[in-house]
Amino acid sequence: MAYQQEIYLDDNATTRVLPLAAQEAFSVMEDLYGNPSSSHITGLQARRILESARTVAREVLGASEGRIVFTSGATEAIQTGIFSALYEAKKKIANRSELDGKGVLLYGATEHKAIPQALEHWNRLLDLGCEILEIPVDHKGQLDLEFLTKHIDSAHLLCTMLVNNETGVIHELTAIERIVASAKNKVAWMVDTVQAIGKIKLNLSSSEIDYAPISGHKLYAPKGIGILYVREGSPFTPLIAGGGQEGGARGGTENLPGVAAIASILRALRDRDGTVFASYQQLLSYRDRIVQSLNQAFPRVVYNTPFDTAVPTTINFAVPGVTGKELLDLFDAAGMRVSSGSACGSAVKGSYVLEAMGLPKWQSDGAIRLSFGLAIKESDIVATCKRIEEAGIALAKSCLIRSEPLVGSTVAIDGLIQLKEGSNCSWILCDKSTNHCVIIDPFEELLSRIETVIRCQNIKVTAVLDTHQHVDHASPRKKLVEILGACMCNSNQPTDVLGWPVETDGSLLLDNGSKAQYLKLSDNCVIAKTELPGHTVDGQAFLVGNPHEGVLKRNKVRFAFTGDTLLIGGIGRTDFETSAAESLLESLRKLPKVIDSHTIICPTHDYNIGFVTTLESEQRHNPLLAQILNEISVLSAADYLSLKTAVDAEIEDEKNCELVCGSIRAYEDDTGSSIDVAPEFLGEFFQEHRDSLIIDVRESHEFHFAQDWTSLGLEQPPCNIPLTRLGNFLSEVLREEKLAKQEIIFLCRSGNRSAKAAKALRRLGVQSAWHIAGGIALGISPSYEVIAAEEMEYAI
Ligand code: PLP
Q: Which residue has its alpha carbon closest to ligand 1 atom 12?
């Protein structure tokens, strides 16, 4: 099998140490290990290394004058610069009259978080009381110069950056410098040059810049080394006092291996002979090629980096309809390390940089940063482009993104698909035998995804249904029907307001003796409608099952779509104008008469990442529901109402960014399902658990960038059941006794998704579910087998 190496494309976060830097550091640790402050020969040799590093730093930074101070990194350099400037400001403020005010501290809205946080920290610690003002940026990430001009006269310190770490945007320093120079009072100016070194020529001494921080680990040197440039004559106060090292500028024995390493990189940058670093022209052509591949792989890709005013090494992009987390997972599975936004802010939530640029929320939330360094080779670019194109094919084939032309999936989906956006759940229920489906509770944010699944799978849609009319938004049901067009069996059929067709396939009896209309998906699968008012007066449930002789028995109902009536860990709230609190009691008491304990309940919201639930599990976890359904000690309607009113009163809408549809009990943290196996023992572990059902819960496009499973001790690849299909799998587990008893071990890349899957199973009473803590990321060798696209099989 042809396994391929991983490709690291996250150089703005940190870089691999280049061999030349590692060798230099090694030689200092092994041979020239002296203390630069010692006066013997070993010490003098060490001092020479330190001073020659300072000399080359001056050359590369264009800093013939001023201080070059070695620090532990850019963050320390930033602290030192800000502290120095603000300590000076403190003296000035003390001499000012009340009327002059305390002045302001200015920083760009897209600065690295180290800047505003350091400003806030030192402003407070030095008790300055200055106002800290964020300078807005335009849609291309450039500072609002009018704003800057307006505030420059009252500013003590201005912090801007040369190159942005998330977008690669190059800031217009000449225009900023003019404003700084025109200020009535001298303003200290810090320019963060961390991401600019080697990409933009610096001439610090001949500029107005007072402080410039630099980081070694962004530049192929190790972590723990940085540089601060301080302009000749600019205020300077050491942050660390000690043994007088660095001419008294920074106490503490110098990190000589780090200094030697960064110096070797700076020398290679100074000489730039083409052997170590690519030229700017080469970097530009590399970016063009990557962009071409991205365009091919993701035809609807949108770029957040304005390429005409950015360095070529950062490409920030988003793909409509695909979340940042999904893209990150896809790239990771394909062996490419990219990041969402900046590594420090991680956790895949929106980017403050892109938000400051005014980009739409989806573009900021879905942003991926691909960044490469100056040492990238032509062969890396070839491999990157190939891998991006393969990732595009994998994603298109998984039916998750819209690609033109649509690539048909090789495996038809059967059963339930759960699509989620935050807590909102939309459901697609497919019957493979007839290739028909129904869509339940469509949400606006999920329409494009629903459409992609339907078109890609080439399924006919029998109906698009809502379980109720939402209080906070109108259903996009009609819009979806229009979008689906010819995919609908009959887009013109008259329906009620919730999408239920006026003409159905007939009616059947439910187990409680009531009559219910139904739509037929196949001979073995119907969807029956029954009223379920309470949360809203128009609430209804859809029961999916296999009827026999005109009766849909409780134990034959496989799925129940109960809207907001019964949520995971809660009961739908009934304090809306459109609610019917008394009716909810009857609706809840009706449920056990029409579904059984194995029926999978599919709610409209999933606040606690439980995916789906069952009546039995809800009764176990929700005391109020247990009281309501208790047939021996019957809860009176009056007692129910007062209990329910109290529960609803606990809902704190302001605390949540969305309207919560019920009071949800926190999910108990079940750590019992977690198996801690050290990466080196994973092989042994899987050998010992040969009879277990091993399930990889990553999405199919990730799974199919196959790992070298044998290196994990697995004789064959695990089953692939993505979280979108977990509800479907659960219905099988609960109905098949053998499966319910089987030990099930979930795994994924980081252990995050597999933990959710194991917890969900345990919550439903399947105690034999486990997951591998920390994921398999640490256990697999960083090599990837690429399966030819035609051979890929997908189960959505
Ligand atoms: N400034 C910028 C623009 C950065 O990208 C970073 C690192 O992410 C820093 C400052 C902080 O650098 P260090 O990790 O060396 O403290």
A: 74
Q: Residue 158 burial (CB < 10 Å; 0-12/13-18/19+)?
A: buried
Ligand 1 atom closest to the CA of 13, numbered from 1? 8
- How remote is the CA of residue 354 from the centroid of ligand 1, in Å? 18
Percent of the chain with pLDDT over 70: 92
Q: Which two tokens stand for residue 72?
A: 């532990």
- The residue nearest atom 9 of ligand 1, judged by CA position, is 74
- C-alpha 343 to ligand 1 mean position (Å): 10
Q: Ligand 1 pocket, 215 CB below 6 A?
A: yes
3-state secondary structure 707-772: CCHHHHCCCCCCEECCHHHHHHHHHHHHHCHHHHHCCEEEECCCCHHHHHHHHHHHHCCCCCEEEE
DSSP string spanning 90-106?
HHHHHHS-GGG---EEE
- Peptide bond between residue 405 and the one before it cis (omega within 30 degrees of 0): yes
Query: What residue owns the CA closest to ligand 1's atom 7?
Result: 13
Q: Hey, how many other C-beta atoms are within 10 angstroms of the C-beta on 378?
A: 12
Q: Is 369 close to ligand 1, i.e. is its CB under 6 Å away?
A: no
Question: Cα(214) to centroid of ligand 1, in Å?
Answer: 8
Question: Can you list the alpha helix ranges (DSSP code H) found in 132-276?
Answer: 145-152, 173-182, 256-271
> Does ligand 1 come within 6 angstroms of the Cβ of 235?
no
Ligand 1 center to residue 735 CA distance, Å?
54
What's the rounded Cα separation, in Å, for the pair 587 and 533? Answer: 6
- Is 613 in contact with 568 (CB distance < 8 Å)? yes
**Joined tokens for residue 139:** 């849609």
Which helix or strand (DSSP H or E) is residue 25 part of? helix 19-30
Confidence of residue 347 (pLDDT cuts 50, 70, 90): very low
Atom of ligand 1 nearest to the CA of 12: 5
Regarding the beta carbon of 314 and ligand 1, being less than 6 Å apart is answered no
Quick: pLDDT tens for 241-286: 999 999 999 999 999 999 999 999 999 999 999 999 999 999 999 9
In DSSP terms, 67 is beta-bridged to 230
Annotated active-site residue 425? The verdict is no
For ligand 1, whether the C-beta of 353 sits within 6 Å is no
Q: Which pairing describes strands 540-545 and 783-785: parallel, antiparallel, or unpaired?
A: unpaired
Q: If we measure between CA atoms, which residue out of 548, 538, 544, 540 comes closest to residue 509?
A: 548
Give me the pLDDT at residue 579, please. Answer: 81
Q: Which atom of ligand 1 is nearest to the CA of 72?
A: 15
Measured from the Cα of 73, ligand 1's closest atom is: 15
Q: Sign of dihedral through CA atoms 459, 464, 465, 469?
A: positive
Q: How far is the CA of 311 from the centre of ligand 1 (A)?
A: 17
Residue 496 contacts by C-beta under 8 Å, 6 or more apart in sequence? 502
Gap from CA of 153 to ligand 1 centroid (Å): 29
Q: How far apart are CA 615 and CA 620, in angstroms?
A: 9
Contacts of residue 173, Cβ cutoff 8 Å, sequence gap at least 6: 160, 162, 191, 207
What does the pLDDT look like over 89-147, one tens digit per residue? 999 888 876 657 789 999 999 999 999 999 999 999 999 999 999 999 999 999 999 99
CA–CA gap between residue 84 and residue 70 (Å, rounded) = 16
Per-residue model confidence as pLDDT tens digits over 290-299: 999 999 999 9
75 touches ligand 1 (CB under 6 Å): yes
Best substitution site from 218, 220, 352 to test ligand 1's pocket, by max atoms within 8 Å of Cβ?
218
The catalytic position among 159, 344, 425, 489 is: 344
* Cβ-based neighbours of 678, under 8 Å, separated by 6 or more: none
Res. 343: pLDDT tops 60: no
Q: Which of 157, 154, 147 is nearest to 126 (CA)?
A: 157
pTM as predicted:
0.84
Per-residue exposure over 237-266, b if at least 16 CB sit within 10 Å of its own CB, e if not? ebbeeeeebbeebbeeebbbbbbbbbbbbb
Dihedral through CA 698, CA 699, CA 705, CA 706, nearest 10? 50
